[in-house]
Structure formats: C-alpha cells, structure tokens
Amino acid sequence: MLKCSIYKRKGMETLMRRIKSILKYAVDNCNYYSKLNIDNEITIDKFPVLRRKELIKNKNDLLSKKYIDTKEQLLLTFSSGTSGIPVEVLWHNSCYLRSIRPLWERRRKYYGITPLSRKIEFTLISEDSINNNLQYSINSNGDLLSIAVKSINSINSMETICKLFADFNPDWIYIQPSTLIRIVNYYRDNCYTPPKTIKYIECIGEVLQDSFKKEASIFFSAPVVNMYGSEEMNCIAYECPFHSLHVLSENVYAECYHDGDCYSSGRGEIVLTNINNYTMPLIRYLQGDIVELSEEKLCKCGYRDKMIRTIEGRVRNQCRLPSNIIINSIILGDCVRIVNKKLHDIIKEYSFKYDKKKKTLYTSIFVKDDDLSWKKQIKNALQQEYEKNGIDEIEYKYDIKKYNYFLEVGKKNNILEII
Ligand SMILES: [Zn+2]
C-alpha cells in the first residue's frame, strides 16, 4: 500500500511539474499565449480551449519565438480536416522524439516491438490514379512495407495483400479496424492460413469494437491493441495488456469539455495539452473526439494514468435527433450487433448516414450472398432495436446488399455520416 501511494504521489508530482513548465514556457515564448495576459500564478484553468480553426488561424503566433528563425528545419505533422485546410503542427526533433518515446516504451515492454521490428502499415495517403493494382512501397532498409488503403479495390489487390503478408514476414501490423475486418474476412472466405510471424497488431484511426478485436486476435493468434493518437499530439492513449486504454500521461494531459467548460474527467470532448512540444505548445486543444475519461487510477499493469473508457467518435459524427436522443456510431453499431447475434452473425459490415433536413436515418447492411433472403428479418429486427433505444420520430431507410471486400473504399473512416 505504501509503495502505491509513494508511486502515485511521485507520478502526479512529475506530471504537474511538467504541465506547469509548458504553461509558463508558452506564456513567456508564444505570442498567442502572451496575449492572454495571464499574470500571477499560471495554472491550466486560466487557459481557454484551443479549437482547430484557431490553431489554423494562429499557427504563426503559436510557434515559440525561439524557433522562428529555424522554422525551415522543424518537423511538420499535419492532418487534413473536413474543411480541406490542414492543421499543421511543428516540432523540433528533440520535442518530437520525446513525444513518441512513451508509446515505443510501452510497445517494447508489452509486445517486444521496437523501431527495428518489421512493420506493415496501412496508410490513407495514396496517389490519384487507382487501377486494379495494389499501391505499396518498401523502404530502403527493407523493414517497412506501406500499403495505400484506397488501392484495396479488387480481388487482385486482396490477393497481393495476402502474398505480401506471407512473403514480408512482418513482426507487426499498423492498421485501421475497417481494413483489418476486410482482411480477416478475405482470409476466412478463401480458407487461407494467416501468417505466423505477426506478433502484434495495432489498430488506429477508428473506433475499435471489442467483439471484433477478440475475433481478429484469435484469427491471427496475436494481440490486437487500440492506439488512439492524432497528428497534432502523437499518441494520446494506449491499451495495456489488461485492456485499459491509458492516457499516455508522459505525453499529454487530458481533460474533458462539456457544457462550455473543462473538467478533469467525465463524458465529453477530449481536451489535450501536449507536455513535450515546446516548439509549438498546444494547450487545451479540442481534439474533436467524444470520450468518457476517468480520473487517475492504478491499473494491474502498474501505470497510474487517466483512462478512456469509450471513444464514441468524432464530434462531427454524432447528432441529436428531434426526440432529443443522441446517436453516434457506438449506439447504432450496438443495435446492429444485437440483431446480428439474434440472426447468427449474417451481417458482415454496416454503415449509417443521417440526413438532418430529411430527418432520415439510412442504414446500409452488407451480408453474404446467400443471406440476402433474410432482408426482411434484418430490417424488422433493426427497426425494433432502434425503437427500443429511443431512436424514433424519424424516417428509416434500409439498403441490404451483398458484401464485397471493397465497398465504399476510402469512406470507411466514418461509420456514421451526418449530412
Ligand atoms: Zn493498464
């Protein structure tokens, strides 16, 4: 017990000291924060939240004056948003390395994965011209194979993936859950054996459902682990072997934003302060994801961080219905999973679209060829499930189609699209 409380106190003290240090540095060195006129004691609750559009607008003022003259030599990470204007974050090499180190430490500690391990990554970046061939490249060291997700659009491309998996001997895979689902299905349907070398699979970019995580883990005989990160922050949270999604407190300080204020925990939009990026300090950045955040808690794995209980998806991918019920991909996905269980797992994939003007929820369901005769049962069971969850007073439209591995390629980041 004594050991725990000392550990807690020390860990918390270090974190608080590091937060204080970045806050003071930001106020002293960045125009954006100097203008806030925070005098006396600098504490995080005196900082307003930083929205994505404010980051884009104030990117020069957010840059520390110490790096203005050497701006050209800095590392740039960027993410493209729905607006089409990318968010750009600058890093001095030492800040960047400090920021990514905690994730690498945990990868190595739990799964023996190091930067030297052979990796296959699935990337959302691709060239414009897409034919039936898989776009992929291997780095000069020969230990990193990158595959463009958008080019997975034919049986031919699926076959190439299976061949690459067998020939490349990867130690680990870095992949979006929706792509992993397709690959598992393809292997299964063709009775292929999964490669034996894979000892770890890291899922990124989308909400990873527990049921699928277990399924994929059994299929590949390897742990499938959730990593929640962003281009602006690097790693935000990482799942430990006891299946807790820990906020990586050596990299970010997490808070929760709801009803116009920041709270230390609760359900709402995640607010992040990067404690390693002194090049372009991001204090109380609204990341755009709805989560349920707990207070610091000692886990069986030995870490005492805040934990994320659920990631409900992007703020822009949830919506309040006329009946005042909020829908998001988790709530709708749960309805489908209940129906799927009742109907003996005939649903292979699904997506939703909600039209706010027409007050219509479109549900797309993909089933195996011979299950199309179940259309009516699927529709009725789903309708019942929706109504049971208060998803009513709207129109419903269903589209139940034969599954193939390449449906709506490139749009799969959003299980629920709001228009
Ligand atoms: Zn843990």
Task: List descriptors.
single chain; about 425 residues; alpha/beta; Rossmann fold; GMP Synthetase, Chain A, domain 3; eight-stranded mixed β-sheet; five-stranded antiparallel β-sheet; 10 helices; globular; disordered N terminus; binds zinc ion
Written overview of the protein:
By secondary structure, this protein is an alpha/beta fold. Among the domains are: 2-101 and 228-315, ANL, N-terminal domain (Rossmann fold, 3-Layer(aba) Sandwich), CATH 3.40.50; 319-418, 2-Layer Sandwich (GMP Synthetase, Chain A, domain 3). 30% of the residues lie in helices and 28% in strands. The protein has helices at residues 2-29, 31-34, 52-57, 59-62, 93-111, 155-168, 177-189, 210-220, 329-342, 375-388, and strands spanning 75-79, 87-91, 119-123, 136-138, 144-148, 172-175, 200-203, 224-230, 234-239, 245-247, 252-258, 261-263, 266-274, 285-293, 297-298, 304-305, 308-314, 319-320, 326-327, 347-355, 360-367, 395-402, 416-418. The strands form six sheets. An eight-stranded mixed sheet has the order 4-5-3-6-7-8-9-10. The radius of gyration is 23 Å and the shape is globular. Residues 1-8 have low confidence and may be disordered. Zinc ion (ZN) binds next to loops.
